[in-house]
Structure formats: structure tokens, C-alpha cells
Amino acid sequence: MLTLSGKSHGKFCDGVSRRDFLRIGGLAMGGLSLPELLKAEAEARTGRSFKSVIMIYLCGAPPHQDMYDLKMDAPLEIRGPYKPIKTAVPGIHISEHAPRLAKIMDKLVPIRSMYGSPNGAHDSFICYTGKPPPPNGGAAPVGRLSDPPSFGSVISRLKGQADPAMPAFVGLAPKAGHPPYGSPGHPGFCGNTHAAFRPNGAGMDDLQLNGITLDRLEDRRSLLTGFDSFRRELDASGLVGSMDAFNQQALNVLTSSKLLTALDLTKESVKTRERYGKGDPKNYGDGAPLNLEHFLLARRLVEAGARVVTLNFGRWDFHDNNYPQLLRHLPLFDQGMSALVEDLHERGLDKDVAVVAWGEFGRTPIVNKEGGRDHWPRVGGALLAGGGLRTGQVIGATDKLGGEPTERPVHFGEVFATLYKHMGIDTVKTTLNDLTGRPQYLVDGWQPMPELI
Q1: What's the chain's average pLDDT?
Q2: Quick check: 3 pLDDT over 90?
């Protein structure tokens, strides 16, 4: 029996008092109370009722030909000093500096023929939307409201929160010297209600009540609702309603410990934390940190109810000293990515959670005089896992220099269409209205990849 206490204020026409109406007793269903029914329903569920995506942005664009697409028959100034090693899948070889990923290749999909960046300009926009950045828009420190929204914001708008106490979209992106390297993906015309929650700096401060009790917080919300009632009646734009939804989401998160618990890595065993490692929490140049704990946070967040988590990792813009810098980045990525994928499988989340890691373009086949590789938008690479995808295969191929796609070119939009399908969204039929009221397709006509589904 569950009783919600409160004062009686008269009776309904059938003689039941308002206080009695708040008393939830045995129901005519085998004598089960409502809490017992809810418990039985929860226990009857098999697996999670929602899907998630973890997007890992390798800031600045990694050298694909030194990671997943080594060219040992090319001249030295193209192939570099690294050697390929065998993986768990016969016939698939990757860099010797990613041995952990090699061991779980049956759970991965390297794509060697990614394209879509229009001009080779550094921008996280295409990695978070699947679309070329709008002129002077995507590279701005704060995305414009007229821009297409990021994947996380679209999912937040179309699917909402899987758990009222968890943001639908979380971005593990720090502030960065180059603003796109610190972007979690902008909300665009979805509006700030669907922006990423960023649990760093001010984002964490917002989770503190600073001495205000929950009762006082509720009183303040009631007062605010009273002040807003007149404006809401006069509002024709829907702005106040949008703010109401935002405030409700914020209150749900603020009055629950679930998000803070998900962000608390001390809840994990020492063995698990050592498996993921620490990396380096400091920003790498004007990029993001090489923070391996973010991979573990991403897993904890999707497990707790986040639908989309974005993670910005390192600064892969190696115009000079390509090989020494890669030796700093690749082994850490190898550890974090492999730990994440294995952990998802061991926890039975591999079909529910899809993972993609990529940069905005590839790097030049020829190493320059500074020992670096420059921008190369013609082809790049990506790595996918989970989501019930057909793993243990390579998709696409490049020529002998690693400079042009020769088999199955893959556009960013195709990967996004595949991820939307994983989330239960039909990109052929689904549109979102922009600020002018015009319907916009999510992926500009691209279809899910048949090789993966």
C-alpha cells in the first residue's frame, strides 16, 4: 500500500475524499499494489528500452594511412616507419601501435574511404551533423540558431530523455584554443533546450543547490510558474513553452543524484579504472585532452540513461613531427577505445550502444619537409563498433598511396543515416522544421549502409 499524505479538502461527487483519492491501494489485478505492479513490469523487461550513441571526435583529423590503412608497398616518404600487424580477423591489418584494437577487430569496423569535407578546413561540424559546415557558421565559437543541429540535439528533440533525471545529450568537450575542437555539437535550429549538457566548469556548478533545500526549490518553481502564467497565455511563438520544458528538465536533473553518480568514477572498481587508464587531462595544444577517463565516463553516462554522448579527444593536426605525435596519441586511443568496446560487450550493451570515432578529413599521402602530413579532404578513415552492426569487416579501400578511394567511398551522411536507423529514426520520412518553418531532412538523402545493417 502506498499512501501520499496530504490534507483532505472535501469530497468528490461519489463520496470519495480527495485525501482518499491520493491513497493508492490494492488494485483489481491479483491484489498487487501499484509499486508492486511497476516492479513486476521492470523485472519483466529484457534489456534496455532505448538505444544510445557515443561519438568520439578525433580533433584535427588523424592520419588514416598510419592507423587503419598502411601502405607498405608505397615509397618511404608515403608509407612511413610503422608496420602493420595482424588482427583477430584474418586479412585485416592495422598499425602496430594499436595492438589492443587489433585483438578485438571482430568487434570493430574500420572504414578506409570516408569523404565529405568540402575544403579541408578544421571543423567538428561534419563529425557531429554529417553535413558540410555552413559558410562562416559551423566554425563559430557558438553555433548559429539557423545552422543544422548536431546528432545529439536531433535525438534530444525527437526522442526526449530516456530518464527524467538524465540529460538526453551529454558533451564531454572542454574549452579549446580552437573553438571547434571544444564543441560537443551545436543545437542549431533545435534550440538551446536541446543543447548538450557539459559536465565541466559551469555545467558542474549548475548541479549544486548551494544551500537551497528541495522544498525551497519547489517553492521557487511554483512562484516562477505563477509569474509565467500570463506570459504563457499571450505567447504565440512557443518560446515560453520551450523554456518550461527546459526548466522541467533542469529540475529533474538537479533534484536527482543519478547524473552526479554517473559522473563519479570512484563508483568503478580499481580494475576497471586501470583498464581504461587516465591519459592526460590537460588540453593538447589548442585541442582537447588525451583524457582516457572520458571513455569510461561515456560508458557510465549511456548506461545511466543518456542517449548521445560526444567525446573530444586530442589534437591530431600533425603538420610537423607526425610520427612522434602519433606515438603520443594512438596508443592512448588504442587503450581507451578498446576498453570501451570490450566493456560494452561484457555488460551486454553492445547491441544498444553504437560507437563511432573519426576526424573531419584525412592527411596527405606525402610527408612534408617538417615531417608532417597536411590536410587531405579527398579521403580519411573512421572506426565503428557496437549498435548491433555487422562488425569484423573493413569497408572501402584506397589506392596504393592512400590518397584516393578506389572501393566503396563512404560519405559522412551515410554513417549518420545508419546511426539514426539504430536509434529507430527513418531518415527518409523524418524532417525537422528550421526557424523559417521549412522542413529539413536529417541527412540530405543519404541511406543507411547496407554493409552494416
Answers
A1: 84
A2: no
Q: Are 255 and 267 in contact (CB under 8 A)?
A: no
Q: How far apart are CA 54 and CA 386, in angstroms?
A: 10
Contact 331, 303 (CB under 8 A): no
Looking at this protein, which amino acid is placed at residue 350?
D
pLDDT bucket at 300, cuts 50 / 70 / 90: very high
C-alpha span between 351 and 389 (Å, rounded): 8
Question: What's the residue count for the chain?
Answer: 453
Predicted local distance difference test score (pLDDT) of residue 135: 72
How confident is the model at residue 76, as a pLDDT? 86
Burial of 14 (0-12, 13-18, 19+ CB in 10 A): exposed
Cα(185)–Cα(192) distance, rounded to whole angstroms? 12
Q: Are 79 and 400 in contact (CB under 8 A)?
A: no
Contact 385, 391 (CB under 8 A): yes
Distance CA 96, CA 81 (A): 11
Distance CA 334, CA 385 (A): 13
Spatial distance between the Cα atoms of 408 and 396, rounded to a whole number of angstroms: 5
The C-alpha torsion from 319 through 324 and 327 to 332, rounded to 10°, is -70
Among 11, 32, 35, which Cα is nearest to 21's? 11
Provide the residue ranges of all domains of the chain, joining segments of one domain with +. Answer: 2-42, 51-199+263-441, 201-257
Strands 353-358 and 380-386: antiparallel
pTM: 0.82
Least confident among 20-29, 42-51, 174-183, 258-267: 20-29
pLDDT digits (tens, 9 = 90+) for 278-298: 999 999 999 999 999 999 999
Q: Which of the two residues, 57 and 132, has the higher pLDDT score?
A: 57
Nearest alpha-carbon partner for 451 in 111, 126, 130, 70: 111
> What architecture (CATH level 2) is domain 51-199+263-441?
3-Layer(aba) Sandwich (3.40)
